[in-house]
Amino acid sequence: MILKYINITAKQKYPVALKARNFRVATGLAFSVFGLGAAFGHIRDAVLHNNYSPYNVGPVLYIGDILVPVMILSLLLVRGILLTRTARFTFN
Question: If we measure between CA atoms, which residue out of 70, 65, 73, 71 comes closest to residue 35?
Fold first, then answer.
């Protein structure tokens, strides 16, 4: 078990590093869901209402609403894969 290798005091139930990892995942997921939802709204507005203004379908859509959330999700996935692989070999 991982927790037996980490020095934990009586008051501290979980180490700070484990809490920070879950916080990063939760924050990344929330930001990505919000960004992809905003992208859906921009695309829907462009198709239904012919709103092709620069701040609706321009770089804001491609970079800020699609590219950045996909990159965050892919980095979280790679980080999770690497953590499980290194944990399997380190703590056995």
Answer: 65
CA distance 71 to 51: 27
66: closest CA among 48, 92, 43?
Answer: 43
CA triplet 15, 77, 42: central angle to 5 degrees?
Answer: 115
φ, ψ of residue 73 to 5 degrees: the values are -65, -40
- pTM, whole model, 2 decimals? 0.70
Task: Enter the tokens of residue 8.
Answer: 């934990």
Give the residue extent of every domain in the chain: 24-90
Distance between CA atoms of residues 37 and 64, nearest Å: 12
Instruction: For residue 69, give both structure tokens.
Output: 């959330």
Return the structure tokens found at 83.
């953590």
pLDDT tens for residues 9-29? Answer: 445 555 555 556 678 888 999
Rounded Cα gap, residues 11 and 17, in angstroms: 16
